[in-house]
Every structure is written in C-alpha cells, then in structure tokens.
Amino acid sequence: MSTIELTKENFDDIVSGNDFVLIDFWAEWCGPCKQFGPVFEKSSETHDDLVFAKVDTEAQPELAQALQIQSIPTVMIVRENIAVFAQPGALPAEALEDVIGQARALDMDEVRASVTESQEAEQAQSEQGQQAQGS
Asked: Which of 6, 15, 21, 33 is catalytic?
C-alpha cells in the first residue's frame, strides 16, 4: 500500500476511520527524513493491512504543532484513535518492524482503561486544585 499525504483537512477522517495508522512527520530539507522515507515506504508495502501516512511539517505546521511534533523525522502510531507510539529519529527498518509488531500486540482494552484512569486522575487533581484555591 502506498502512503497517504495527511493534512489538517483529512487528518480526522483518516485517523478515526482506520484502526491502525503509522504517521511519518517529515520535511523536504531534512536529511534524516530523506533517509527514512524509503524505509517507511518499503514497510508500507509489507503491511498492506495498515495505513501509512506522511505529514509534511512545512506544508502542515498547524498539524505538527497540534500533535506536539518538535523534531523530524518523527514516527507516530495511532491505534483506535489513541497515539500508542511517538518517537523522533530515523528508525532502521528492523526497528520500525519491531515497533509495528509491538503496537500490533497491544491489548487495546488495557490501553483504553489506562487512558481513562489517567484522565480521571488528572481531572481529580484539577478539581482538588480548584477547591484549594477557593478556600
């Protein structure tokens, strides 16, 4: 499968419409991005059941900023609308395959439970902080 160009216009549709999306954040001027590009493309041909997408951070600065991308290349994996992996740096082919395997092996029920637990803890801390300010 070839890669899809992600933009702020199609991001939500592609990420929410697919259970497993790998995203490569890159720019034309970035040497390591150019080295990683063929590795990402080759992997997309191996895993035709997954969606491989690229974000040109020069053309889509708002998208990169919204996802807190601070250096490129960065690889992100989103499973079932949850970012389960994000790491800057050009991964060698073996490392990319390992990361994909680990992401495939995740128990998404456990991941969702963990996310919910974290959100509830953050909300409780926020409420405690607001009560402390009010007293």
From this structure: 33
